[in-house]
## 1
Amino acid sequence: MVKLGQSSFRRILLSRILLLSVPVLLVGEYVTYRKARSTLLETARQNLTESAVRKAETIEQWAKSLKSNLIGASENSMLQSVEPKDYQKFIAQLGQRLPAQVDCLQLTNLQTNQVIASTCGQQPIQSLPAKFWPQVQQQQALLDDKSVYISLSWPQQRQGKANDKKVALGAEDFPDASKEGRDSQVSLVLSAPVYIRRGNSRQLSYALSLQSALPVQTSAPKGSLAGYTVAIDQDGTILAHPNINRVGRNIDQEADADRLKSIVRRAIAGGTAFLHLFSFERNGVELLAGYAAIPSPSTKQENSKWIILAVSRLDYALSGLEEIQQVLFNLIVGLIAASIIATLYLSRDLARPLEKLRDYALKVDTEAPQTVPQNFQIREFNQLSEALNSMVQRLRSWAKELEVATKEAQVANQLKNEFLGNISHELRTPLNGIIGFIQIVRDGYCDDRDEEMEFLQRAHDSAMQLLNIINDILDIAKIEAGTFSMMLEVVDITQVLEDAIDLQTTQIEEKGLKLSLPAPHAPIIVHADPEKLKQVFLNVLSNAVKFTESGSISISVRLESRKNSANFNGSAESTTGPTDQSDWVVVTIKDTGIGIDPEQQQKLFQPFVMADGSTTRRFGGNGLGLAISRRIMESMIGSITLYSTGANQGTAVMISLPVNQQSSFYFHSPDLVTENGNFKC
């Protein structure tokens, strides 16, 4: 019956897929967009930082080159030999040989302070200092960087001749950026002394001066990550900027003064990184600025710095993001359209088979099922139809299995009850003996000291029996919990077997059983825990003695070769032939006792299980010995198997372990196992 508020499968499927796919697509587009923006922004930051370092190195090398060229020109021997009337020609030729960034070259007479030769007119480019250089210089003395007088020449706020350089940042940002280099940027003016040889000494006569504008980049086209150049002195004075109106101003007058001061502090401290600026061009325009510092070329103070910035607008650095955004938009529209179409077809293809199967399930008669719809395009629906067709048969088989499981549960419950009864009896019997023997001694009913010791010995034996039962229960609990541990070492299995036999000799003699032992032989080395291996032998021997009323117990030891793809002990010594063969030692303990029905044999290796309740009542025991023994042998890469032809036919238990090294012993006496591995009856 359809209830209110329910919807059809098609509508739910369509709405759920769209509600899931559309937000996922939108979130995916947003994440992709943010990731692309972050990547482009990080790339721009790194490039601007590297660009600032390169610009700083260029300016530093430029200043050093100017100094070295000026010193070389002032010490030129040609200047010593040229007549004063030819100085203009010499200066013109010298100006052509100097680097292209030298804007002006002048030779000034220091006696008259008159420019006597120049490449840029007779107007002095620098006021020369008085008494900066010594009047007389020794013949062998050479000029160095300290002999160069340096000053700054600030640009003039006037119209100049336009050049061909394109200013990509816009005229509203840099209204005077198209002026000539020496008129729009700070120029560095350097002067070096010229000493003329007069007799035996050299007299200071002239000063050779040159002027060169800072080699800065005044344009930063869209998409470029090099940025335009801004130079700031340590005191905050702007030395170079594409906007001539900014040159000479202090950063304190800028709207973004705090961030600019932070750049100056970090650069002076030795940092090279980047920072975002928000008002260094116009309000509302975000900039990225990489920065680096160089020693100031205009002063000889060691701690004086110039800070060089590579600046680019943020939207220019992220210009590639527009194309990515357009691609993402087209992609998201296409994906949404494709998702809607695919959802419509998917809902139809899924709904039709379900509707047919629903109709079949509503009409099917479980006693005589109708033909189930088949031949769907979707394999899973065909499988579902087959499942529905066989549902009745499977339900009937499940009913039978449930009946069998119920019987098995009843048997398990019976075994549990028998175990609880047996274990209570096994625990109570030695405990009652302990209490009784101790009470007799305590109450003084013993005639002498020997009788007291006899009762105490019996109490001790009962206590040890009780301890063994508890140890078995604890061992099986540890095994089930996976905490049962062993210490494997190299041991002689024959010695361990002899130790176990010695502990059972008294019980065997008390019952008058005949014990048949193997002939003396050489040691057989295995990798095992000696105490746990002895416990296995004791469990098997104890069972043999317990369940044998009369007759004999025979023990044999033999070596056999088994196929094996790997060495069991991790050593090549365990192999005796080809690489797929390994030697195993097999200890067989056979008795002539009560035997066991073949159908019951595998159950004996399960915890708390014995052949039947009558056996338990007759011989005692808790049904844990063989279960513990099998777990121990499996942990040592060995095995334990039991064979009996039937009741009162005796039992043989075979304990096998891989041999750790070559053994010279091969047991040649008649064996209990045939060549093909079957037990001899």
## 2
Amino acid sequence: MNDRMRIRVLLLRVLVLSLLVTLGARLWVLQILDGDHYRQVAETNRVREVVTPATRGMILDDRGQPLVRNRTSLVISVNRSITDRQADQGKAVLARLASVIGSPADELTRRIRFCGGQVRQPCWNGSPYQPVPVAKDVSPQQALAVIEHPDRFPGVSADLQAVREYPHGSLAAHELGYLAPVTQDQLDRQGDEKGYHLNSLIGVSGLESTYDDELRGVDGVERLEVDRFGRVAGTASTTAPASGDHLVLNLDLGVQQAAEQALQDTINSLGGGARTASAVVLNVRTGGVVAMASLPSYDPSVFVGGVSEQDYQGLSNPANGIPLLSRAYQGSGAAGSTFKIVSTATVLQDLGGQPDQKYPCAQTLQIGDQTFHNFDGESAGPITLHQALVISCDVIFDQFAYNAWLADGGLRNGRGPYAPPKEYFVRMAEAMGFGKATGIDLPGETKGSVVDRAGAKAIWAELKDSYCRRAKNGYPEETDPVKAERFRKYAAEACVDGYLYNAGAATQFAIGQGQYLAVSPLQLAQAYAAVANGGTVWKPMLARAAISPDGKVVRTFRPTKTGTVPVSQDVLAYIRSGLLGVSTEPGGTATGIFADWPTAQIPIAAKTGTAEVEGKGDTSWFASFAPANDPQYAVVVTIPDSGQGAQYAGPVAKRIYQAIYGVGQPAAMPGGKPPAALPRINADGTIAAAPAVGTLSPSVPAVPESGSPTAAAASTTPASTTVAASEHGAAGPAAAVATSPLVTSPVSTSPVGTSPSTAALAPSRAPP
């Protein structure tokens, strides 16, 4: 054997030895190092899971009345692990079943087929060993036809299953939310952590989403052993389902019903259609959401069993008002004069305003080439800030805002590199909760917008190219040539100096208008609640507690403080006094609304607002709290494209207060207070309603109900049906939509309680 042959043999030996070593190493990895893993995989390969969904917890109002519950439904299902082994793959069984339930056999075939890349609904997205529901809410006769003839329907079962039910239809739909099948992405990301299965239903909106973990419970799992042909050979293990916890809310069914009905009546009076409206009621002492309504709404039951593409398109169509969108916490806009609580606080706390000093409330204010008008061009002469709130004078706040803008450097966008702008109005708005999410326990909340000088510059930098392009090319899509040219000129100006925070923007901001301010009704209610309670900004919360199916309190949701208004108690008291004057003093913009209200017992502190919207009607706002001398509830109402605050939003708020306190009708909140105790859930699942609390505060006597002897003695004249028709309190046509008579009592023309001393209201800072 020559050397060449020896080398070849040696190389062959090395190669063979390397292969043997590699094979041995691989066998060691498979059998020793990763043996447990592959043993588990092998076990899994011969075990299939069948899931029994857990009964989802109910959602209850503050007194234990169900807002979302479960009902039993007779469901017929087909088990493909049985029918597929039949000679005709179950075609004959499906044909017989189709005749029983009145559904085409082809439709049943489509429902039990497995979903895939090329297979769309209807199809089955769950386990192939899971019975596939093909008919829900069948009649007992149809169910018996299957149960009594198992020989004719092998692989077909009929049993009772729990499905979601909404006993009040569309009531509070945006807050409650709905369920939908889990997506593949959710399975991949959270399947193991959350215990999701292929056929799991999870919350995708509202409280159903936020508290899905509490409500969903734990699904039961039956692990079936199968042979290599997929046939069931036995049961490896069984885990029973554990029902989810019940969620108790701060929301009150009676107040929610009153809010939605009042909004709907007003929308109907405006012509109905796709008009929108919203209302928020907060507990000012805790941040609890007592009611939150948004119209148009929708019935969550359309999502039970899967929503059709046509229905979903209708619910998200702007032509229908986008019913899926809650205007209460997901929509925002200019707040009009209701924003003046921010401006009053800024003037008194930061700009040197004096509580007793009088300021000119002229018809107009000239700033450069711009003229700013009072509402309806009215003039009241020299008045105090208290009176400016009462009659809603604009130009006083315009002047303060303009002076502050000048002190901040005017168009120089600041005082210089070493003296940044103070921007007192913006900072006060932010401190009261505007420009950021409130943190409510609902998904998709808007932040609104509060834009300062730096923010305006950042927005301009992002939009500059668009402005310049529009300045050159115009707006050919705009059919009105006058508007198109006006838009083009605006774009041309913005292209060059759109970063400048001009005087017009600053003055408009102070009266709740302009491009740099947008607030949601929930944010405004949070701010009014803070003014009412002495300066604490509470996080709005719908959930109050989670209670297990056997009645044990699993978790309570405590009030959460998120901030403090940087204003002295004397300034806050001054603002509260001015807001009370809005509904009680001569010239107050809401005196017409509450002319027949029992103010001595339940004083209302309020502010009307009328926000202008280009191309549409004014947005009507009304923000308030009551009782003014012992605040418990803040109520905010807004109705876009309607008119003045006193004409539309105000009467809706009045109806909400009627429902809360039982003025002319049974009280939704007995004693004017929320229930102190949680509702009790018995071991058998029945609910004992929470007991009513005591009477109103001693300083606010209980209001007698209509029809009682006390009520008859208190009122000998019919209730007034007129409300203010303008922002400034002029009496106008009847616009109230109340349906029951009010208890009448003399209207106080002076603030309830003691007014703050003027000496204590000295500004904390000198004017800039």
## 3
Amino acid sequence: MIKPLTAAISGILLAYAVGAPAQDAPASGAAQTDATTRKDDKAKEAVNLQQVIVTGTRSPKAIDEIPGAITVISKEEIQHTLLVTEDATAVLARSVPGYAESSQAMSNTGETLRGRIPLRLFDGVPQGSPLREGTRNGTFTDMGIIGRVEVINGPSASEGIGAAGGIINYISKTPTRDGDEVTLTTRYQTQAHSDSAGWKVGATYSHKQQEFDALLAASYIDRGISYDGNGRRIGLNTSGSLADSETRNLYAKVGFNFGADNEQRLQASVSRFRIEGKGEYVQVLGCRGPTDVPPCAVPRTNTSEKGHIFGAKDAFNDFKQYQLQYTNDKFFGGYLDINAYKADQSMRYLPENTEDKQDPLIAPLGTLYDQSEIVVHKKGLRTSWTRPDIFNITGLELHTGIDFGKDQALQRLALSNRLWVPPMHYKSVAPYAQLSWDIGPVTLSGGYRREDDKLTVNSYTTTYYRNRVFVQGGGLKYKEGLKNLGAIWRVDEQWSTFLSYSEGFTLPNIGIPLRNINTPGQSVDKIRDLNAIVFKNYEGGFNWHGEHGAFGATHYVSKSPFGSSLAVDPHTADFILSRAPVRIEGTELTGEWRFDKDFKITGLYSRIRGKTAFWSADPAGRYGSGGLNKPLGVLDINPDKFAAAATWRFLPNADATLGFTTLLSRHVSGDDTRAYDGAKFSYSEQTKGYTLFDLGVNYDLGKHGKLSLGVENLFNRQYILSWSQLAGYQNYWAGRGRMTSLTYTVTL
């Protein structure tokens, strides 16, 4: 337990702690820090700008002093991915070992990190809500304005609730050159079909002069329909498609340094993002074969055809974000960071006439189409104070602060204006503190974060499908103390090793159990499935850095005594939550080798396995939860992944990168018998792997700009997305076939 600070400081910041696991992952690229753009030229002269991270610490800290698994995706890696695809999460699937395959959709269904849902941030602001996880928080901005992505792998409480699988922080670009600079980007892509063409136009203006800097960006993307490797249109994703959509993005960030030595900074930013379907196609369901209902002789995936459902509205993601940040490099001998934010997020899904959306008071059963829509409002205040050499002890650093947050979410059926999930109000107060001590080649760290949160839900009535039962409103309090410990030993200039223990905290997608209540006499404060999930993560690994290359390995075990996993409802084919113990174990490898200044190769490997129980403990106390005998399937755990890329500068002004990603085939199965009543349970799942290649070529035209060619799925492989191989609601989708893109960028 960490003692309080002096009275002068403790009046501003409370002393408790945060956990943040991290590992130097050399093959994942290096980060150019903007560190909130504070006087980079003087305050961080002694810091290697290629080896710092701010996620979890909120102030620049050298990667080799943080124990755990970190991946930093550089601007160059982001730009290479953008040559191939505009998908916001594709760069994660290619660069982060434990990240699942990209869904290639507006939805990020199945895109887990180390088998659990990650907390996605944009400049530190949460992009989703643990109250109602709608799998839409991976598409929230134009990737062209992102300067780097910092990924903390594994459960962590450092940035608040929701980081079950880790933290993914997208950090916006920052002006680095004095004066004015304008960058124009145009892009054309096609799959060689008349309705597959898409295009993008974007402009970024940056200004930096003395104490003032500004970044303004705007972009527009028009996407055509997608085709698979067989030249067949791909069906629109039920949870939202990128295909047949338009995207508009506006972003502005301004900052001003002031004070005696410019040690203070005030920065404000505004983000406005909207992606919306064009409504030109409707989905035509496929068939998995003779065992499907209705059956078919030859399997066929979902496809799309021209048309529109009468009265339907377009699917969209509409995200607005506002931030105001104040920093002070010399606040009581340390670095103070105060960040206030407000975010409004709306997500609408495609029309469906499923059983759970019917109501005979509106239309005859089986005829009613409706559209789900999730609305989230949040605001918060994040504070941190970092003081090196605290208590006059060389190398001892204190990082402390307090976070405040308010989150409101609801889900409605937009066409009939019915409430599906009632408004949920969540308040969070979380003081924290973290100590780290550099003792020569060893860094020791430890901390504690206290979550003191409250959930409030008003009384409501469920839908017709759930028997129109009245549910008494109420509130739940969540009080958790979250600890972390870590150590890293820099053996010599090339080798280092680490051990860490960390705890994370999240909520179990509360909207799903609330909307599924179908028996009378229920009250919110007595629903066991609303209890929080606490994760415990144990991790160890090593890293090697040489003159020409680097290599890293990590092994982890993640446990949650009352966890959550996804299953498919046999009646609605929709996702349902299963609350039972969960254990996940995995191994990750990363590597890079530079043969010379013109040629390098990178690679990564990930293997994850997980188990849960077939049943949770009976609320009446008749039996406890089952043993860990049910394997976690593809909805939670990604198949083994291997990826590699080779980059060759074949001319002084030209380079090419050829990469591939392989997901291996996998079969998992398990069974169990419950002693209480003799009930038998079993589960079996088999997925087929695939390998995809992509190619990116850049040609620098000097003052006339840069011309780039990108080819996704270079060999036009026909395949089924891994998570779509599991039978579920309208989810039989093929992956995209070959996509060719031509991008022209010029800086003025």
## 4
Amino acid sequence: MDPTPSSASPFDTVSGALGDYIPKGGATVVGRQHPLGADSEAEDGEQILAVVGLRPDLRISGSNLDAAPFAGVSAAPGTAFADLLPPGDVPTVTQRLRRVLRTREAHVARVQRLLRDDGTELVVSMSILPAAPPQEGLTVSLIAMAKRLHLYASATAIGTSLDIGETAQSLAQSLLAWGDVAAVNLDYAVWTGEAVTEQAQDRIRLRRAALVPDRAWPEGYLTPGDNLPREASRLLAGAVMRDDVPHAVVIPDRAAIERVLGDPLLVRALVPGNRPVSVACIPLVVEGPEGAPRPIVLGVTEVWRRPECLFGDAELLDLQELVAKTARHVDLARQHQREHAQVLALQRRLLPRAGSDTIEVASVYEPTTPDSAGVGGDWVNSFPLPGDRTALVVGDVVGHGLGAAAAMGQLSMEARALLSAGLGPGEVLERLDETVTLLDDTDAGLAAGYSALGSTCCIAVYDPVDHKVLISNAGHLPPLLVHPDGSAETVAAQPHPALGAEFVVREPFEVHEFAAPPGSLLVLYTDGLVEDPAASIDDGIGRLTDVVRDVHPWDDLQQAARRVVARLGPQEPLRDDVTLLLARMAGRRGRDTATWRLPARDDTAARARALASPLLRRWHLGEQARDGALLVVSELVTNAVRFGTGPVTVRLVRAGNRLTCEVGDTGNGRPRLRRGDPLDDGGRGLHVVHKLTTRWGVRWTDTGKAVWAELEG
């Protein structure tokens, strides 16, 4: 009778689970692997499975290594499992073991090497399983793999990552079953993500991507990251592409290798050590673009072993099959790398630059890892606005990749243009809402299979004179405000759906105003910083609130931002962008500003000049600059009285050698420059302002408009 799950031993459990994968009539067995690839096949039907039990501290609790292929592998109880591994594999395997302990999720069928007592290595397929309750610890199953089983397991494992380095390393480890040293060299275009085109022989350049096993190599031998000499690149690539057809090339002994290379420096760079060796070179090849006369070589693999162990035809076919499958994964990784780099470049260009003397800005952006879904649509931006104000914007566009990047770039630039044109945060979000809907309706958007509906955005505008912030939010997580005394709160504006949410009752975007005295810290972020599968989003925001409370007014803000992300960011490979913006608000000193509220009367312009004149003298403006500023004030106030309604607000701000004059009223007409008749008495005021200022414009307020102008002091 079969044992029940609760009574079965780990060995029986694993054996039963793998029963379907062992060929009927007995399993092909891998015998003892000797240096440089010598192996002996055992009798059909011999056991190829072994099990090692581990305690929670990753020390061995017991093992079943009686099968012949595992001869020489010692697993004494109480010893560390890491002692069975090559030194270079210890960190990675230990991380996998701890992850299975933590998550209770099995890690299945990874190609791995084990050390025998005599220093030789055995290639196995290793699976890590959590021990069955009530036991604690892990069960590690090991399969000594026959070549075809190894080929299947390798091809399955290699395609699990879109990282070029990991793919090359997995291929090199798999090739080690056919030899003692395996190397993978890739063309520069693969590393940079460039389009792979037909290569001229004199332009082929290779870089070593992977080398196994990990050991101390002779001086001058090429290791990962090294560029192959141009002669070696041309020689290797030319050898495997004869008559425009890729071939596996075998050089049977060291004398022939040295004769082919012809240069002692090339021999030292390419041949591992001084012992007798043979080598098989197998190209990584993909089909060229449509119409290309021949395939494209992405790189060359090398498998080295002793010359008495000749490479047989069956072995070469297996090697070519494995490398051919890997070549497709390498090309996919190259394309993904190119897209990842393009989107990341766009993301970086959108990051805030330096702040001003009224606000200090720091940001951190950590993109998703290259082998995830691709860089997401998170973005933050900050930029100066007319009237000494500063805009702070954060958004999260739905999706990943180039479609999300294109939408992100369009929304970011549109938000900046609209805010700079004088629209308020709520009005800007209304336009962005329309843009997202329009993008989704266009044929181009539908053809691309991408929709930005549901994207979120939060806009804050800081006024350093009034020490206030206007904020409007479209479905984004609420910002945090840290007060100068260290207390913190979430800034929750009236909730509103995300951009383009058509299936909800549409409401205007609420604009919320709050005080931000000098020393306050505003925190904008995206969900990648606070999301945790094991906790609610409110818990994540609470953790962020606790962390930003520790940011002191005297801390370097950029270092503080990195510290916040380090404390909150996930330790696992990132599956969503992590974005944070910190804005420390200093405000404008009272002695550098002046604001007057005046009635709209015929003598208001004269009253404004009388108030501004002594102030401009105290600010030590030159006589010519002072006269120009008074004329600008007079013209703007006159226009406000003539064409506006209600009281007039005059504000002067000094920032270094720049003077900003702003006049607000309750009218909603937009002043425009126009060509008037030479004899016309009206319409000349704006021409005067245009001539005397470096720039001027209009911004819209809740009560009307404000016309601003900047002059050099």
